[in-house]
Amino acid sequence: MTLINFIVYQVLNEPAVLVGLMALIGLAVMKKPFSKIMSGTLKSILGFVILGAGSNVLISSLNNLGPMIQQTFNIQGVIPTNEAIVALAQQTFGRETALIMGFGFLANLLFARITPLKYVFLTGHHIFFMAALLSAVLGTAGLNEIPLIIVGSLLLGFVMVLFPALGAPFMRKVTGGDEVAIGHFGTTGYIAAGLVGQLIGDPEDSTEDIEFSDSLSFLKESVLSTMLTMIIIFFIIGLFAGPEVYAEYAGERSLFMFALMQGITFAAGVSIILSGVRMIIGEIVPAFQGIAEKIVPDAKPALDCPITFTYAPNAVIIGFIFSFLGGLVSMFLLGPLGLALIIPGMVPHFFTGATAGVFGNATGGKKGAMLGAFVNGILISFLPALLLPVLGSLGFANTTFGDADFGVVGIIVGYLAKLFS
User: Fold this and answer.
1) Are strands 300-303 and 119-121 parallel, antiparallel or unpaired?
2) Which positions, given as ranges, span the membrane (predicted)?
3) Which residue, 189, 262, 298, 324, is the most exposed by fewest CB within 10 angstroms?
4) Hey, is 216 helix, strand or coil?
5) Cβ contacts of residue 180 below 8 Å, gap of 6+?
6) pLDDT tens-digit series, residues 124-150
């Protein structure tokens, strides 16, 4: 059990190490020189660490904005937070989660080898979150011990190839190739955004072709336009909040300086993420040729959602804003429909909304980015509300799973498990 715990919690749960391990195996199988193997492995790890560091910088800014909005408008309800609900699940299903995660990754490799779904899911924390969801849902439905672990592992391995495969047609439009897949359990929202884009937009009318006058041409730099947008958002929310509320977050700084620094911090996080993504793509794609040749023929890596951000940086900020608007609209619809009030979480709306914006832009340009992300915002509001009853006692702690696929899998598996238990 000690070895399993080490593999699960120290290796599989560390995306940088997991990706580095895959790069090492791929380059070794291709019989590359030792220096190339070390370079590719270490750069893959470094790229993921850089990506994670950028995410942390960005989240530090969002963690100020979200509570400010809640205090300003006196909103009370359930905030979807994957990390929080997983921590609760671990108290009851910790052992089961660990085993499902370990065996689920092996099942992923098996499914990738024997089925046409040739995807290896490499987003370690999302593997962990889905393992926790499956253990909680299956356990609440009445399964336990060995049946729970076997069923959970097979289901985990299956969804780890299924969702990248479902998202692949749209991912090809995003990247212009077939080298990488989306490995993030928000794919239902991204597919929805892509479909919306196809229906209402024109991919030629891209967010990346937004015209600026000469005096505003500096905004063609996506990181600068992102920074300015977030400065304005922080400033407006601060004005509504009033001095007492924003002072809790700004300290002795004026509202202007607080908004300025938060916008700059947010943009810095995005810039760091983009740097990490470029490094990962440059190393992991060649390494996977070795895995494809020897271990899982035609294998493709399924990577975390920020991998898409470099393809349409303007769509990233547009997607975030419109996904959050979708969450706000949904918040006022949930109560009258008799569902739990889901408060839009800034972190899930940024990462899934931004990615939905990129997918929507790839199929429908500006309209696709805006309305596709808006639909994503609705999905990640209604699906968590519908998931709450399935989670049993875990669902009453003011939090639930945030991304769309957790809701889809949890609801379907939960109700099917109850039918057969």
Assistant:
1) parallel
2) 6-29, 41-59, 119-140, 146-166, 223-242, 254-274, 315-333, 339-359, 371-392
3) 298
4) helix
5) 171, 281, 284, 285, 300, 301, 302, 303, 307
6) 889 989 998 999 899 888 888 889 999
